[in-house]
UniProtKB/TrEMBL annotation:
One of its GO terms (molecular function) is adenosylcobinamide kinase activity. The gene is cobT. It comes from Gordonia insulae. The active site is at 540 (proton acceptor). This is Nicotinate-nucleotide--dimethylbenzimidazole phosphoribosyltransferase. Pathway: Nucleoside biosynthesis; alpha-ribazole biosynthesis; alpha-ribazole from 5,6-dimethylbenzimidazole: step 1/2. Keywords: Cobalamin biosynthesis, Glycosyltransferase, Transferase.
């Protein structure tokens, strides 16, 4: 395997003594330099272990540099470009379970380290081979610790496979190439297909009316929710195009890097579009997912729940902040009633799952069937917009009380204490803050047992609006369409979306940092750096829309600035006039 500009991430699975390490090494034989990340100790008092390590070492030649660490994510992040062999994930997992005392305590999980590892794997820029044992084919171990290891390794292998380009299984010395799951990048999902076809026929363009207004064209429902939670492997934005865009930035008439973050955003957008220079954005589209929440009846918001339906009508008729900001930025706004506790216009309620989601303090917000329906709706909406030409998507939301479920999701997935993350939402007073903190505590208690299962987590505490948002954001990544995230509520849904579709985060840009404390924690968790920090706390998609003109400008820079050659401007390596250099004697 020689790097051809595009890195290849290969997961090599196999049983004990199957030849998996040897095969992994053979994949990197053409590289002049290979880093060997050893996840188990290379020195030990166990003679058999030492002999195994020595056998592995003898097979490798002096092209290898050995790094002994269980911080594989850290090692990959330190040198993402270096061709690397990681051997193996079994030792890594054992060390992680040791670190958290998780061998015999199912309540302790390693989800964060596993996600961190997957994100680091998704971000490598050089060839990577990861060796992992496949122990799921043997007997179910007789001890709790053995069963825990076997179960965790199954989950880990599946998660790592999702961010690798190839997965091979070594059996009896033979290499079996495991097929990738079918890709839906070019076509609507099976779940979304019927509705997408119906809307495509009715609404060929995403902007039948002026930017900023809610177009008359409707989203159709219902959708087939079967397997709504199963997403295709996310293909990252094109690394080769990113390199070309970075090169182009250096040719433009400015000191290298002088446009700072604007340059990075242009490079990202170029890599999302797979072309350099990128195409100007022509059809950015915001979808505002609206819903009511049972918990809002218990005094966790400064406003009454009736405001949700009233604001939905306001957005539909073009009078909300989201409409004003969208008009300025040239974006189209659509509003979708997922679970508003009132009847709304038929053109916005085609996907409605129910009236109001359940009170997360005491009951599931949705049934699993409703959660699948909401996820499928979000996915179908993303598909319809991409199919009809949207070239950038923004997820927005409107729902009195929705900062409570969003904070519960973030708290549960990042294991924070409620008081660290609770914010003032629409502006609750101190008494409301105390009620909200207690509601978040109760919701997190109910959420805790679902943190390993994104679909049941959404059903337990999120509600139909946030669940549809999660489906929308993940499906945008499946369809290789860039997204600008809005505030805390959208980012909470994004966290779950990235659990459903690992690597989806690479298609998302954080538009802004909301004043909600949970937002900063969620952004850190996703490793996202917001474009703006304007002390906003509105939702609707407003923060993302405020960032959109900056994103559009970053594209213009790459498309329209003159190069040094074109403008006849001297590049920095050119010799200044009048300076004569003489050869050294
Ligand atoms: O996303 C955010 O950062 C955000 C922060 C504060 C408020 N909101 C919006 O305010 C509403 C929820 O606030 P609350 O106090 O009713 O939970 C909902 O309609 C959100 O769009 C949104
Ligand atoms: C008026 C109003 C507008 C909103 N937009 C998003 N959340 C909101 C909450 C309220 C209360």
């Amino acid at each position: 395997m020689v790097s051809r500009g595009e890195p290849t991430r290969t997961l090599v699975l196999g049983g004990v003594r199957s030849g998996k390490s040897g095969h992994g090494e053979s994949l990197l034989r053409d590289h002049a330099r290979v880093r060997y990340v050893a996840t188990g100790p290379t020195r030990s008092s166990d003679a058999d272990w030492v002999a195994r390590v020595a056998a592995h070492r003898d097979r490798r030649d002096d092209r290898y540099t050995t790094v002994e660490t269980i911080d594989v994510a850290g090692a990959l992040r330190a040198e993402p470009q270096t061709p690397t062999l990681v051997d193996d994930l079994g030792n890594w997992l054992a060390a992680q379970l040791d670190a958290v005392g998780g061998w015999d305590d199912d309540a302790v999980d390693i989800d964060d380290v596993r996600s961190g590892l997957c994100r680091a794997i998704a971000d490598v820029t050089g060839d990577l081979v990861i060796i992992s044992p496949e122990v799921g084919l043997s007997l179910v171990p007789p001890t709790p610790a053995g069963r825990r290891f076997q179960d965790e390794l199954g989950v880990l292998n599946e998660a790592v496979a999702a961010v690798c380009d190839r997965v091979v299984l070594i059996v009896a010395g033979r290499v079996v190439e495991l097929p990738a799951p079918p890709t839906r990048a070019a076509a609507p999902t099976a779940a979304a297909a019927p509705a997408a076809a119906a809307v495509a026929a009715e609404a060929p363009a995403p902007t039948p009316t002026a930017p900023g207004s809610a177009p008359a064209a409707t989203f159709d429902g219902p959708v087939d929710p079967t397997d709504a939670e199963i997403f295709d492997t996310i293909v990252p934005p094109d690394f080769g195009v990113a390199s070309a865009a970075r090169e182009r930035q250096l040719t433009l008439t400015k000191p290298p890097g002088a446009l700072g973050r604007l340059e990075d955003i242009g490079v990202w957008l170029s890599s999302c579009q797979g072309i350099c220079p990128p195409r100007p954005l022509t059809a950015p589209t915001v979808v505002v997912f609206a819903g009511d929440h049972g918990v809002a009846r218990s005094g966790v918001s400064a406003f009454p729940p009736e405001v949700t339906a009233q604001m939905v009508a306001n957005i539909a008729s073009g009078g909300a902040a989201v409409n004003v900001l969208a008009r300025r930025a040239g974006a189209t706004v659509r509003v979708v009633d997922m679970s508003v506790d009132a009847d709304t216009a038929p053109e916005i309620s085609g996907y409605k799952v129910r009236r109001g989601s359940g009170d997360l303090r005491v009951t599931d917000a949705l049934t699993l069937a409703e959660a699948r329906e909401a996820l499928a709706a979000g996915r179908a909406i993303a598909d319809q917009l991409v199919d009809s030409g949207a070239d950038l998507l923004i997820g927005g939301e409107m729902g009195i009380g929705n900062t409570t479920p969003a904070t519960v999701l973030i708290g549960a997935l990042t294991r924070r204490e409620p008081v660290e993350i609770v914010g003032r939402g629409t502006g609750i007073d101190d008494a409301g803050w105390i009620r909200k903190t207690a509601a978040i505590r109760d919701g997190m208690r109910r959420a805790r047992r679902h943190v390993h299962d994104p679909l049941s987590l959404l059903a337990a505490v999120a509600g139909a609006d946030l669940t549809a948002l999660a489906g929308f954001l993940a499906q945008a990544a499946v369809r290789r369409t860039p997204v600008i995230l809005d505030g805390m509520v959208v980012t909470a849904a994004a966290m779950v979306a990235n659990e459903l579709a690992p690597g989806a985060v690479r298609w998302w840009l954080a538009g802004h940092r909301s004043v909600e404390p949970a937002h900063t924690i969620a952004l850190e968790h996703l490793d996202l750096d917001p474009v703006l920090d304007l002390s906003m706390r509105l939702g609707e998609g407003s923060g993302a829309l405020a960032a959109l003109p900056i994103v559009a400008s970053s594209v213009d820079i790459l498309t329209s600035m003159a190069t040094f050659d074109e403008a006849g401007v001297s590049d920095r390596d050119a010799e200044p006039a009048g300076v004569v250099t003489t050869a050294a004697t």
